[in-house]
Write a structure and sequence with these properties.
DNA Polymerase III, Chain A, domain 2; elongated; 379 residues; alpha+beta; 26 strands; Proliferating Cell Nuclear Antigen; 6 helices; nine-stranded antiparallel beta sheet; eight-stranded antiparallel beta sheet
């Protein structure tokens, strides 16, 4: 096996694939990077058994300056190989595999030898039926991921909550995540559903890694699903992830539909106020911020205190405060995550009582995106 390639272009692809490679793996060969060279291109594969990433550099890509002299396959130690490639002196590099999987990497006056492994020992990637696929705009998919993964659980005691529940039915996609303290739900009308129906749970960690390889110049991402695997195709990159097994809890019942107090905020102004209040709440063991709303007096005030440091009180700027007087406490970190997910817009916050979850929705698109936060009992 032998090929030469532009090192800068190779590194871009290598960085994407390395996201799937763990430094330690139950299957030792999975700490390696698989390189498969055909007559038309070079394919890099990385996997940690939960996610797998495969990316191909083709000869038709002029930037790659790819010259294939001999096809073949090899698995190289990913961490060391990556460090070597990034430190080579010239932009053009050549990789040659000789007898006994001895691999030579050369660039300019530099030459490295690495011991490779037989690629036949590398696990096969799942075979996923290419017939049924859902195509989503890349920027919208990235936005959905960022808006929902913030609410997945980090606790392995309930594995099902570490994923995002994806429902596709009647040309609508629903993505929802909850860690039982907060919830994020996003809806999207899709034009090319073609009668597809999906009900799957994708690990939040997988979606976070997928989001990192969705670049601004990418237009669409294809999604294909089998019984226990999902495949995202993003340009030259194929991203595989296992699915979580089990039934996701019924989250519809968690979302209140009535409100006793509602208020509208500019997201950025409220976020800044919560960030200031959390400076002191983080110094306290409870990490709680208190919000008091008084519709009659047309006042909204945020409070926080730390017995060791002091306290903060700030009057809030808002629009359209209606309903009953309210005194509620919440985790400011949950609130900051929720507010950042809306971007620069106005939101409506609806409360039912001091002890019931409250909702945040964008003022102009209430139906398609909702964040829910459970308050903190302080007495």
């Amino acid at each position: 096996m032998k090929f030469s390639i532009s090192r800068s272009q190779f590194i871009k692809t290598l960085n994407d694939v390395q996201r799937a490679i763990a430094s330690k793996a139950t299957i030792p060969i999975l700490t390696g990077l698989k390189i498969a060279v055909s007559e038309t291109g070079v394919t890099l594969t990385g996997s940690d058994a939960d996610i797998s990433i495969e990316a191909t550099i083709t000869q038709s890509d002029e930037k790659a300056q790819l010259l294939i002299e001999e096809p073949g396959n090899i698995v190289l130690p990913a961490r060391f190989f990556g460090e070597i490639v990034k430190r080579l002196p010239e932009d053009q590099m050549t990789l040659t595999v000789g007898e006994g999987f001895q691999t030579t990497i050369t660039s300019g006056t530099s030459s490295f030898n690495l011991n490779g492994l037989d690629a036949n020992g590398y696990p096969h990637l799942p075979e996923i039926d290419a017939e049924n696929k859902l195509t989503l705009p890349a920027d919208i998919l990235k936005q959905i991921i960022s808006q929902t993964v913030i609410a997945v659980s980090n606790q392995e005691s309930r594995p099902i909550l570490t994923g995002v529940h994806i429902l596709v039915k009647d040309n609508q996609l629903l993505a929802v995540a909850t860690d039982s303290h907060r919830l994020s739900q996003r809806k999207l009308e899709i034009n090319n559903g073609q009668g597809l129906e999906y009900d799957v749970i994708i690990p939040g960690k997988s979606l976070t890694e997928l989001s990192k390889i969705i670049t601004d110049d990418l237009e669409e991402v294809d999604l294909r699903i089998t019984e226990n695997q999902v495949l995202f195709t993003a340009g030259p990159i194929k991203f595989y992830s296992r699915l979580l097994e089990g039934n996701y809890p019924d989250t519809d019942r968690l979302i209140p539909h009535d409100a006793t107090t509602t208020i509208e905020f500019n997201t950025q102004k409220l976020l800044a106020s919560v960030e200031r209040a959390s400076l002191l709440s983080h110094a306290s063991q409870n990490n709680v911020v208190r919000l008091v709303l008084d519709p009659e007096a047309k006042e909204g005030t945020i409070y926080s205190n730390s017995p060791e440091l002091g306290n903060v009180q700030e009057s809030l700027a808002f629009e359209n405060l209606t309903g009953e007087k309210l005194d509620i406490s919440f985790n400011p970190d949950y609130m900051k995550d929720a507010l950042r997910s809306f971007g620069p817009t106005d939101i409506k916050v609806a409360f039912t009582s001091a002890l019931r979850p409250f909702t945040l929705v964008p003022s102009e698109d209430e139906e398609n995106f909702i964040q829910l936060i459970t308050p903190v009992r302080t007495f």
